[in-house]
Each structure stands twice: as C-alpha cells, then as structure tokens.
Amino acid sequence: MASPGELAQDRRSARRRDRPSLTDPMVGELSSVVGGPIGKHALVGRQRHITPLRVIFAFTVVFLALGWFGKAACIQQAPIGPGGELGLDWSGSRQYVAMCYSDVVPLYGAERLDQGAFPYKKSWEDTGSDGSTITRYMEYPVVAGMYQYVSMQIAHAWSAVPWLPQALTVALYFNVVAFGSALAWIVTIWATTMLAGRRVWDSALAACSPLVIVHVFTNFDALATAFAAGGMLAWARRRPVLAGILLGIGGATKLYPLFLLGPLLVLCLRTGNLRDWTRTAAAAVSAWVLINLPIALLFPRGWSEFFRLNSDRGADPDSIYNVVRSFTGWSGFDGPLAPGEKPVLLNLVTAVLFIAACAAVAYVGMTAPRRPRLAQLGFLVVAGFLLTNKVWSPQYSLWLVPLAVLALPHRRILLAWMTIDALVWVPRMMYYLGVSNKGLPEQYFTTTVVFRDLAVVALCVLIVRQIYRPVDDLVRSSGDDDPAGGVLDGAPDSYPAWVPASLRPRPVAVPVPEHVPAPRAPRSPATDPI
Asked: Higher confidence at residue 167 or residue 524?
C-alpha cells in the first residue's frame, strides 16, 4: 500500500523525551480518557502537526477561557442609574458572592483612567482609614501603569466607533486588559515549555493550573511572569544581555523578576562565570532605569507613589503577620499607628527576614553536593519573599507557577498545592463580604492562609531535599543537567579562591541511580520537534 505522503528522511523516535502517561500514575489514569498510555512502539516526536507545544497551547487557551468566564459576572451591566442609565451590576456585593472580583474593574475609576488621565501626572485626594486626606497617584510600577493607560486608550477608541459591538467602557477596558494578559500568559507557557528540556509535558501543569482560572485576570501579574520566563529563556539560550533586558522590564512591571538575578549570581559564582552574570545584571539595571527615568524626571511625585504606598501600608490580610494578629489579638511590631505614621518596625522585620531567606538560599546554592538548577533556587527566593513580605496579594501566587513546574516536576504534589492556593479565594471573598452580610469571620480566611503557606513551605523543603540529594531530582535522573542553565548547563564547579571552605560542598557519597541515562544529545528540530 502506498504512503499518503512522502516519508520523513529522519524516522527516529525521540525516546529521550519524558512520556508521562507511562512514568506518572496520575497522568496514566487521565490518559484513559483519550485511549490510554502511549504504546511502546509509538514514534515519539514525529507528529508534524499535533506537537506537545501546540497541545499545551490548547490547554492554555481553555484555562484562560475558564478564567475569563470566572470574572465575567463582574462586568455585567444593568440599568442602575437614576434615569435608567446602564452601569456595572455589583448589587448585592456581586463581586464577592459570585467570586468574580478583579482589581482591573475598580482601578479603572480609582486610578482616574475613566477620565482619560495620564498615569503619574494625574493626582486626586483620597481619605485614609484614619480619616486623613491623602494625595494619591497611580500606584503601580511604570510598565504596569502604562499598560493600564494604553488599555484605556484602546477601550475609548473602540467605544468611539459606532459600528463595533458596544458595552460599558469599563467592560471594554477589562476585556482589553484581559486580552493582553492572556497573550502574556501564553508567552509564559511558551517560555516555560522551552525551559523544560526533555520533560516538555511538565509545563502542561502550568497551563492547566487552577490558579490560572482564579487569578490570571485578577490583576496585571501575567505581564511580569511573561518577562520573568522570557528572561530565563534568553539566559538558557546564552543571550545574557537579552535576559537582563527582559528581567529589567519585568522588574518595572512587578518587582519580582529582578529577584532572579540573585540565584544567577550564586550559580555563576559557583562555576566561576561572573562575566555573563555581570552583563545580565548591567542590562537589567539599565533597562529598569531607562524605563523609569522619563517618568521619574517628569512626574517625580507620581513615580514615587508605588514606593510610598508600599512603605506606608501595614500588613495585608494575606500576610503571616496578619494571620498571627487575627488569632492572638497582637497589635503588631509598631503597635497602633498615628495618622500618617509608617510601620517602621514591620518594614525592618520584613526586610531582615527576606535578606535572611536570600542568604539561606545562597548557602544552599553554594554548599550543595551538585550545583542546583536555576529554577530550584529561583523558586526558593521568590517563595521566601512571599512568605516574609507584609503583602501577599492573591494573584502573586502566579509568580510561583512556572518556577514550580520547572523546579519540582512532581505533578500530584504541585496540583495539591495549586488547588489549596486557588481555594483560598473562596473564604477570602466570603470574608470580604462581611459577617453582617452572611460572610465568614476573619479566622476562617486566615486559617486557609496558614494552609497555603504551609504548602509553599513544604514545596521549599522538598526542593532543598532534592538539591542535596540530586538522585531524587526527576530532571537530572532523566538525563538533563539544567535545561534553564544556559552557560551553567553541564558546567563544572570552579569556586573563586577567596570563597571559604564553609561555603563549599562537603565531600559526600552521592547515590547513583541504578539506570544511568545515555549522555544528552544535541537537540535539533529534526530529531526533537516541539
């Protein structure tokens, strides 16, 4: 029988790629929906159209759609004005009862975007919790603030064209923001897939994370994850300047992408490769400065609002400090604050604890028997920041998702953590609803925060354990060294002479797996298509 098409010249199977339906019991059970685990004679990596990346993209789009439908109840319009004018229907605290709350909607009016105001230039008077009057500006870093401004301009331009489908401008604005956030999350998944090495299917869990449904459209954090993952991918492809530029832009969106420079420093120090790190760090700082400098010079008071707000605010409901307060009645490190007074001690404690967490991660990175992978140290640093910071906004958990699937690719463990973290949204909304409106008392919410924090701590413990026992690391036991490592991938240790013995690995007998995979072969589109 003749073949319907010309056979490929290279008909080898990509056996080097992980096949989760055979290696993971949970995936094996799920595969029964589509016919069961892959057969032992199947050709892996030879499908021309239905590639892993395209399948993962399909998963991503489905979960982004679920995320949009989860927020759709909060952009419903109804005749609520005095003359029957249409407005957002948030009657009966719909945003909490329907659990569809998104910062994007109230910020449209709160940041004066509905007036067409330019961020950082426009100011307004606001009343603080103590009754004092405060002059306010756009409270987000420059890239996030300008993203809101551009989205507002697109929404206003859309509403000015009569033959286009129309809705309330705030609803149009939300959809523009959501579309951009969806594209950013797709970029995040693409970069994560490229960073997964032969375990390409690990990124499917990031695409199908419950946290995506709940939080991808809660704020603007998908933009930051795209720059962070893109920066890591540029580093993996040995383009340190581009990596620094992307991390710098990410730091001008949300601060956390810049934290990845710390793990890179530790790993480059361990391998004696500080030149590439210096180029990356210089590019990151330059990109951050170039983005921030025009706004800082033109509107210095508006530009500094982000820093002022973060300095002045107390412990948020999601922080461990508020959890302690809610159960013990503790008045906090600073006690009752006078109007306009900063929580100086709380700021100091959070800074010291984060520095201590970074020092602990650096110690682990330097003393582990085998150089840790970049994603492992990156997860530990970002998790350390969230656990010690006085603010853990719910959507911040998205920061951890790409790092987690790369650092600890144990699907059942990660799914358990993601589910716990996503479910915190339910008591959070019921707590914000208020007991007088049949909501939940604060302790119901803070109890779930404790479970979330314990789940993240457990992930950190497992990652540290695998760092010190690399034989348990699924990435390394599959034959890869560090797919995200770039110049660090396969690099031997080369400590500078000035590093003391206490910061070097101690001689230990590292167990060797019974089956040692074949040496890693160079990848090419012909032999390992994504």
From this structure: 167
> Rounded to the nearest 5°, which phi and psi values hold at 405?
-70, -25
* Residue at 190: amino acid letter: W
Identify the band that residue 431 occupies on the pLDDT scale cut at 50, 70 and 90.
very high
For residue range 346-361, what is the model confidence (pLDDT) as tens digits? 999 999 999 999 999 9
SS3 content of the chain, % helix, strand, coil (to 5): 60, 5, 35
Pairs from 515-520 (Cβ < 8 Å, separation ≥ 24):
517/477, 517/478, 517/479, 518/16, 518/479, 519/479, 520/16, 520/479, 520/480, 520/481, 520/490
Q: How far is it, in rounded angstroms, from Cα 172 to Cα 475? A: 43
* pLDDT for residue 244 is more than 60: yes
Query: ∠ at Cα 431 (430, 432), nearest 5°?
Result: 90
Question: pTM of the predicted model, to two decimals?
Answer: 0.90
Q: What is the pLDDT of residues 160-212, one digit of tens each?
A: 998 998 889 999 999 999 999 999 999 999 999 999 988 899 999 999 999 99
**Virtual CA dihedral for 325, 311, 375, 221, nearest 10 degrees?**
100
Is residue 119 within 8 A of residue 129, CB to CB? The reply is no
Which secondary-structure segment (H or E) carries 79?
strand 77-79
Q: Helix count (H) and strand count (E) of the chain?
A: 23, 4
Give the DSSP H or E segment for 78.
strand 77-79
Query: At residue 451, does pLDDT exceed 80?
Result: yes
244 CB burial (10 A radius; 0-12, 13-18, 19+): buried
Cβ of 30: how many Cβ atoms within 10 Å? 13
pLDDT (0 to 100) of residue 15: 61
Asked if pLDDT for residue 518 goes beyond 50, the answer is no
Q: Is residue 276 pLDDT above 70, yes or no?
A: yes
Taking CA atoms, 191 is separated from 1, 18, 418, 426, in Å, by 42, 18, 20, 31
As a whole number of angstroms, the distance between CA 270 and CA 280 comes to 17
88 three-state secondary structure: strand
- Name the more confident of 271 and 50: 271
**Measured between alpha carbons, how far is residue 295 from residues 109, 157, 283 in Å?**
22, 24, 19
Q: 144: closest CA among 256, 227, 221?
A: 221
Domain ranges (residues) in the chain: 47-495
In three-state form (DSSP H/G/I as H, E/B as E, the rest C), the secondary structure along 302-336 is: HHCHHHHHHHHCCCCCCCHHHHHHHHHCCCCCCCC
pLDDT digits (tens, 9 = 90+) for 383-398: 999 999 999 999 999 9
| E strand segments, 81-205 | 86-88, 124-127, 133-136
